[in-house]
Inverse folding.
């Protein structure tokens, strides 16, 4: 068991930009399919699929707050992930540094603050992810590394939609 | 319609049946085709009784819970957090619940803090968290 998973290189990378995602313009169909999937087997609220209801309530079709506009593909093309590529699990690969010598991972949780600006049909969303911190704690399964990242989502009018904080647990 | 939120008030439950019908639909919109969510053998390989659902779907159901409560009152979701403590197993009912913990009245809005969580049929909490929603002052 190592004394620490956090190398000097990792410590120096805290605060760095891990990456930027740009979505395709959100389509009405993307919104409707997402709503149908998360409300299944009940129908989603009409304001997520009926244009008149959406206009009356939100001035147009808006996506559910948790909608992911980066699923499937971005303008960079389809993502191809190698399950054996350890650098793809944490932010280290994108930062160009050596990943920690961990073998297992867990999603430790998520915190989101919404500004009130909704994702709308036609919006292009940009998400910038930063490495916020590395923390360690001794757990039931030994030394555990907590990697904290923060992501800010903005639309193509420069309005902030949300900030999202994620915790990746590795051991 | 929420007229006067009070501390200790429970939100109407949002419940869904787990299984491949729900998970496959969510995988299709979130591009989340992962073996542990599609194949019982892979779920057993990960140490569980079979395949299990996505944390992201529980996250979505917590948002459905909040929307269901605020939609008639013109409310908005301000903040949501949760931890993924346990997987949602197949062919169970998962219930998303909420409890009001604080009510703060501002000049334009009432902010309501909540404990939120998903739980299985035995009442074990799968994804506990917190949320804040805001209602316009009438």
């Amino acid at each position: 068991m190592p004394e620490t998973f956090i190398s000097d290189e990792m410590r120096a990378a805290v605060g760095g930009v891990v990456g930027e995602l740009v979505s395709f313009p959100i389509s009405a169909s993307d919104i409707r399919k997402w709503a149908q999937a998360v409300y299944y087997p009940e129908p989603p609220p009409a304001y997520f699929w009926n244009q008149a209801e959406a206009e009356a309530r939100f001035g147009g079709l808006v996506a559910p707050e948790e909608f992911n506009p980066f699923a499937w593909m971005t303008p960079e093309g389809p993502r191809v992930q190698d399950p054996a590529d350890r650098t793809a699990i944490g932010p280290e690969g994108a930062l160009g540094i050596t990943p920690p010598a961990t073998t297992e991972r867990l999603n430790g949780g998520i915190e989101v603050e919404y500004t009130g600006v909704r994702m709308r049909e036609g919006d292009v969303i940009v998400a910038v992810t930063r490495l916020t911190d590395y923390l360690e704690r001794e757990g039931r399964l030994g030394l555990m590394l907590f990697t904290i990242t923060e992501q800010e989502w903005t639309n193509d009018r420069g309005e902030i939609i949300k900030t999202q904080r994620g915790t990746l647990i590795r051991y | 319609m929420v007229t006067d939120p009070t501390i200790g008030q429970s939100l109407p439950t949002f419940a869904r049946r787990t299984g491949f019908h729900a998970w496959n639909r969510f995988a299709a919109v979130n591009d989340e085709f992962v073996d542990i969510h599609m194949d019982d053998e892979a779920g057993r390989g990960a140490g569980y009784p079979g395949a299990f659902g996505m944390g992201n779907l529980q996250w979505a159901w917590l948002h459905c819970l909040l929307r269901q409560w605020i939609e008639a009152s013109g409310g908005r979701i301000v903040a949501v957090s949760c931890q993924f403590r346990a997987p949602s197993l197949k062919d169970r009912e998962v219930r998303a619940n909420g409890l009001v913990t604080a009510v703060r009245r501002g000049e334009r809005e009432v902010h309501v803090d909540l404990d939120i969580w998903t739980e299985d049929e035995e009442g074990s909490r799968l994804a506990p968290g917190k949320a804040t929603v805001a209602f316009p002052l009438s």
